[in-house]
Here is the input.
Amino acid sequence: EMCIRDRWYQRRVHGVLAQVHSRSFIDTNKNDLPTKDFVDLNKYGGKWYQVAHMPFIFNTGASCVTAEYQILSDFQVRVINRSKFLGLLNTKVEGDAYIQDASNAKLKVIFFGFIAGDYYIIDVANDYSWAVVGEPRRKNGWILSRQPSIDSNLLSLSLIHI
Here is the structure.
């Protein structure tokens, strides 16, 4: 699968995300991250491509990042993350996410049985073709798409949510 984007696209995404990331440190309402009113898990399930992310340690050196969500029940989702590390080594990490409220937009993800994190679905397209995901402290954020890339205008609009 194609996952390499042109350099202009990468510079634009990383530049905007760096600005958003730096603003998050001075945001006084870090725990007030709004989420989607309701997420249909059956539509959200399946394969997503990470088209942009805020820098964080677990993504260092990763490319071609995908996430697959398998709906196990009304309250549990299997998470399978895949990537290439330094462009060479294929990696796969599995975990489980647990629904935290009736909106299905707030989840708690657990990897390796003990590494837990919040996973908030901030926005999702009506047709579930793209999604904006983050966590309440606004230190991590992702733009996901059903395709390996996303239109740059749509990307700019979706970055506003992180």
Confidence is low (pLDDT under 50) at residues 4-9, 19-28. Residues 7-24 form the longest helix (18 residues). Strands lie at 46-53, 62-71, 76-85, 89-99, 106-111, 115-124, 130-134, 141-145.
